[in-house]
Write the structure tokens for this entry.
Amino acid sequence: MPTTDYTEFLHNVKQEFITNSYELDGTFIFDIELPVTPHICPKCGETTERIKDYRIRTVKFGKVQRGPLIGKYRQRRYICPHCKNSFAENNPFVRKHMQLSITNIKMLFDKLTESLTYTAIAKECDTSITTVLRYCSMITIPKLKILPTVIGIDEFKGNAEGYQYQVNLTNPDTHEILDILPK
């Protein structure tokens, strides 16, 4: 019976880059190592394959049916022989200085569009509530440059910025929220 490899499809990790996989206390862990490839130095632009060292990075890929999915990524650091600058190799699954994978961040933003609590999103994405709040605060609502001819104004009870009531400005024709004022 043929099997389909979903690691590349779901997490941007090719099967040939996974060197080992195991389960530890309900957490599914797999080791990742990318092949040695020529990299361009970000400082001087020269190409190099000279390896300086390796660092193990823990990357959270979210949850699967059996529990959290974590990648132990053996990240290679290159050194440029021309300018002596050291830099990390490029990879398709995690950004610089981050623990959450690109696909896990995408799943987090997808969950923000659903009517879920921050706690539920944090559990599904295997992250903390403060991380979910930090990514939620990155979302900005663009302001309209041209106001409609008719504006609907309504107040509602809330607790934003220390005020008990907020004001909702809407376009009654399109039922679109234009802005929410704190007081």
Notes: The first helix runs from residue 7 to 11. The longest strand covers residues 51-64.
